[in-house]
Design a protein that fits this description.
- This protein is of the alpha/beta class.
- The chain has helices spanning about 35-40, 45-50, 85-95, 115-125, 185-200, 230-235, 250-260, 280, 295-300, 305-320, 340, 350-355, 365-380, 410-415, 455, 460, 470-485, and strands spanning about 15-20, 55, 100-105, 135, 160, 165-170, 205, 270-275, 295, 330, 385-390, 490, 500-505, 510-515, 520, 525-530, 540-545, 545-550.
- The strands form 4 sheets. It has an 8-stranded parallel beta sheet.
- The longest helix is centred in the middle third of the chain and has 17 residues, at about 305-320.
- The protein is globular.
């Protein structure tokens, strides 16, 4: 059995990490915005759930142009969310409860309100202050055209002009100017940030857009030739490591440097990369002399199809094994449609278009979606490696696809010309109670409206209720601690069509039926099932569709 002691230096290898989006988790002061004291007050929920760590999405000073990922000070707390003293109390209480603490680090860019950027604007072209960022003269008559054809992830040009005529690079929102990581001053500042939070007791870091820090800034800057090449298509078509601003080979020098900082602590601090790159390239970020892990987005993006998921699992385990890392698995996070809704969409569905239809084209069967989500989660938790959960998935929350456009906060809405509603539907405040102005989130309403259906998903409505999604998660995490041993699995040969079945190191098995028909249930003691199995009598010994079961060997 795997040792899950929090004192293990490699505790992260098979951990379950719970992502907290602070603004939507719990509101202690009643202003409608979640805060650090709210998180601290709800930590017993995480301890009872059985997770090993919590990951805090950004809580730094921010104007919220991008949900907190526009950071004005990487070494402080947004006063609307609390103070450094509140953070220290949260960390101490988490550790008392046996929970590790991971914080989000946003190194690619700052807020346009960051003192460095304000200094750069005031200093003018050609100054050292400007060189901390990526400023360039424009093209065409009077420099009126952007320096390159690079596109922002949020839509439109990745360049914004300032009053003196120069342009600055922003791969995300215009309020998020990209830093120039060729500058040693930038690198040293982030070493200071790593030490600042590590000294306060943080156990690890989630590195935002880890693949974007280094750019090819050799003059003349090169165009990509087509807008789509600024994204995944460019990574697919260009030689690995040669894209002008994503996944460049030189970025790994930064993480080797960070590893020396993280290893100076006892125990060493851990880190996980958010790198939206192909699997064989993603694994490079998790090499022993760099970051410990990298998020596996292929698993999140896989269709609900046995062959597709098996291929992703097999490839992901091989990629991680090749560099000595453990695999990571995630089904939902703050950037994607919640999997209780997403997994019911037909393969190839544009989730942006689905959200724009307010979730009506096509309409998702909420009950069927929850059943499939529970099966997917139980499958994920049986896999070797670390599982990352997103707040509210333990309640079975669906995506709130029908948020009125007038309440949207995500910059994607405006920057896409109001053609993409963005990510607010997965960021709606959590329901803790079945009544109240924000279902227990706070004393008043939340910063995004909650649908009435949240009442039946509330923690209060599920706590102690046999068969509820909350109790399924609690039971699964408790069993997982007992069952996990090693980081290998063996696929069952010749399973029934649409069935995934594998055996873990000590002989227990996970079987998932992804097909539309019931299939024979393999022999063994049922330890846990994501849905009710047929009672004794006719139909005994079958595994229904969209169901996962854990079996003990006989």
């Amino acid at each position: 059995m795997t040792d899950f002691s929090p004192h293990r230096p490699d505790w992260w290898r098979q951990a379950v990490v719970y992502q907290v989006y602070p603004r939507s988790f719990a509101d202690a002061d009643g202003d409608g915005l979640g805060d650090l004291r709210g998180v601290t007050g709800r930590l017993p929920h995480l301890a009872a759930l059985g997770v090993d760590a919590l990951w805090l999405s950004p809580f730094y000073p921010s104007e919220l142009a991008d949900g907190g990922y526009d950071v004005a000070d990487h070494r402080d707390v947004d006063p609307r969310l609390g103070s450094l003293a509140d953070f220290d109390v949260l960390t101490a209480e988490a550790h008392r409860l046996g929970l590790k603490v991971i914080v989000d680090l946003v190194p690619n860019h700052t807020s346009h309100r960051h003192p460095w950027f304000q200094e750069a604007l005031a200093a003018g072209p050609g100054t050292p202050a400007r060189d901390r960022y990526v400023f360039r003269d424009g093209r065409g008559p009077g420099g009126a055209l952007p320096p390159t054809d690079w596109q922002s992830v949020f839509g439109g040009s990745a360049w914004q002009r300032v009053p003196d005529g120069q342009w600055y690079l922003h791969l995300f929102a215009r309020e998020q100017p990209d830093l120039n990581w060729d500058r040693e001053e930038v690198r040293e500042d982030f070493r200071t940030t790593l030490r600042f939070w590590s000294d306060r007791g943080v156990d690890g870091f989630r590195v935002d857009v880890a693949h974007a820090l280094v750019k090819d800034l050799a003059e003349p800057l090169r165009d990509l030739g087509a807008p789509e090449l600024s994204g995944d298509a460019g990574l697919a078509r260009l030689a690995p490591g040669t894209h002008p601003f994503f996944d460049r080979d030189e970025v790994h020098e930064i993480y080797r440097d960070w590893r020396r900082v993280l290893d100076a602590y006892t125990p060493a601090r851990t880190a996980v990369a958010e790198a939206w790159v192909p699997g064989h390239r993603r694994a490079l970020y998790a090499r022993p002399d760099e970051l410990d892990q990298a998020f596996n987005f292929e698993y999140l993006q896989a269709d609900w199809d046995a062959d597709a998921i098996r291929a992703v699992i097999t490839g992901s385990l091989a990629d991680a094994r090749a560099v000595g890392a453990s695999a990571t698995w995630v089904l939902s996070n703050h950037d994607v449609v919640r999997h209780a809704s997403r997994l019911m969409l037909p393969p190839g569905t544009d989730t942006g278009g689905w959200l724009l239809s307010d979730g009506l084209a096509p309409r998702v069967d909420e009950t069927a979606g929850l059943r499939r989500a529970r099966a997917a989660t139980l499958l994920m938790l049986a896999l070797p490696g670390s599982s990352y959960l997103y707040q509210g998935e333990e309640l079975g929350l669906p995506e709130v696809a029908d948020l009125p456009v007038e309440v949207l906060q995500d910059p994607l809405w405006e920057q896409s010309g109001r053609t993409r509603k963005g990510r607010d539907g997965c960021r709606v405040p959590l329901p803790w109670t079945s009544a109240g102005p924000s279902y227990g989130f706070g004393a008043a309403g939340g910063w995004l409206p909650q649908p009435p259906a949240f009442a039946r998903y509330a923690v209060e409505a599920q706590d102690g209720v046999e068969g509820s999604t909350l109790e399924l998660y609690r039971t699964a995490l408790r069993l997982r601690r007992k069952l996990l041993d090693g980081e290998e699995l063996s696929w069952q040969p010749d399973p029934a069509p649409g069935v995934l079945a594998f055996t873990r190191t000590d002989g227990w098995r996970c079987v998932t039926n992804l097909s539309d028909a019931s299939t024979p249930l393999p022999p063994g003691e049922v330890l846990l099932s994501s849905a009710s199995l047929p009672l004794e009598g006719p139909g005994t010994g079958t595994l229904p569709p969209d169901t996962t079961v854990w079996l003990a060997s006989r």
